[in-house]
Amino acid sequence: MHEMSIAVAMVEQVTESPAADGYGTVSAVRLRLGELAGVVADSLRFCFSLACAGTVLDGAELLIDHVPGRARCGPCGAEWATGMPPQLCCPQCDGGRAELVQGRELQIVGLRHTRSDTADGAAHPASVQVKES
Amino acid sequence: MCRVVDLQQAVLVKNDERAGTLRTELAARGTTVVNLLSSPGSGKTALLEAELALAASRGVPVAALTADLATEHDAERLSRAGVPVKQVLTDGLCHLEADMLRAQLDGWLPDETRLLFVENVGNLVCPASYDLGESLRVVLASVTEGEDKPLKYPTAFGLAQLVVVTKDDIAEAVGFDEDAFRANVRQVNPGVEVVLTSARRGTGVGMVLERALAVAGGERAHRPVMARTGSASGDVTGFGHTHAHPHAQDLGHEHLHGHGHEDLHLHTPVAGVPARSHS
After folding, report:
1. CB within 8 Å: A89 and B249
2. A53/chain B closest Cα distance in angstroms
3. Which of B20, B92, B170, B226 has its CA 20 to 30 A from that of B240?
4. Which string of b and e fits B152-166 if b means at least 16 CB within 10 Å?
5. Rounded CA gap, B122 and B220, in Å?
């Protein structure tokens, strides 16, 4: 049940980000989750709801973008869906020198928040893109 | 007033950073960490007892840290080798994390330690996700566990830098199919070495120690396919999950795999987000 540790890490990452002061309430967090990340989505959802309690993320929804595992064989150029359990030997040349193209992601890629009343609207560092909606 | 923030951060980046820092600091003082992962009851402690005794007999300065949910039984067993041993009780937590390991080392680990063996919590799921700052990750499976173990626990076996089969002395009695096991290991981790051991007979014990010492001596450990993710974390083992950035506080727009921004933002009100797929 390491999903709880991961959920706590997610909440920490959001609340400790430089822009967090201007978040007010966070209503949704979007996560990219790879097929080979070793994390169970439903378990993570449950843990996330608990980890958010009492923080600016209280009640926030977790939106998960599932990323299928894909590998590429350097020597022969073949690319394939790894599946689960993953096939990481090249199905074309049987070589063992592939690289993962994708599938190990465990990344917060976006969040939706309601600006806090105290924020002046310009409190975000330039590196954080803010869109009005 | 709703806003959307693009926040490219790997969730485990903090653990990965701490692990990387610990690995660097330990390397500077000549200590290499070996992380042992397996199911409960697969024979980690018995093999580790044999490794510690062999290292001690050869004059190699080693130490061991063993993690369990409860009891100090393993530390008591390992202490017999006469090397520094420490028990960590995780109080129910199913895995070790890098900062937990670091907290244990301060004031305990002798400066001259060449190899620090970390016996992780018996669990093939959770510990696989956490880099502890090791330079060699060893995943063990006993002959009694079934040849398909590597396929059932692909993250653990897929990230192994050395696979060790334990209890080989009873392989015949339980009908262990070595070829099938090796084929399954190869599927999830092509190129990783598989070593057969028997702590009871002492076979293979020297080879595992030899591999650990080779890595401590600067030899590059096996880099699993699953770890070759183009991670920007800079960690030598590549256990970290995909990172867009090497620093936790570095919020930017470097996207993976050519996805445009439009894929990474919540454009629609949350209420209007299409039904999510479930795993």
Report:
1. no
2. 18
3. B92
4. ebbbbbbbbbbbbbb
5. 27
| 3-class SS of residue B182 | helix
For the beta carbon of residue B111, count every other beta carbon within 10 angstroms: 8
Sequence spans of domains, chain B: 8-217
Residue of chain B whose alpha carbon sits nearest to that of A66: B277
Q: What is the pLDDT along chain B (279 residues), one digit of tens a residue?
A: 677 888 888 888 889 999 999 999 999 999 999 999 999 999 999 999 999 999 999 999 999 999 988 888 999 999 999 999 999 988 878 889 999 999 999 999 999 999 999 999 999 998 999 999 999 999 999 999 999 999 999 999 999 999 999 999 999 999 999 999 999 999 999 999 999 999 999 999 999 999 999 999 999 999 999 998 754 333 333 444 554 433 322 222 223 233 333 233 333 333 332 333 333
Beta strands A106-114 and A25-34: pairing type? antiparallel
Binary contact (A88, B261; C-beta < 8 A): no
Q: Are A53 and A97 in contact (CB under 8 A)?
A: no
Q: Are B181 and B147 in contact (CB under 8 A)?
A: yes
* The domain defined by B8-217 carries CATH number 1.10.10.10: no
Residues 6+ apart with CB under 8 A from B218: none
How far is residue B22's CA from residue B15's CA, in Å, rounded to a whole number?
10
Q: Which residue among B150, B270, B279 sits closest to A40, beta carbon to beta carbon?
A: B279
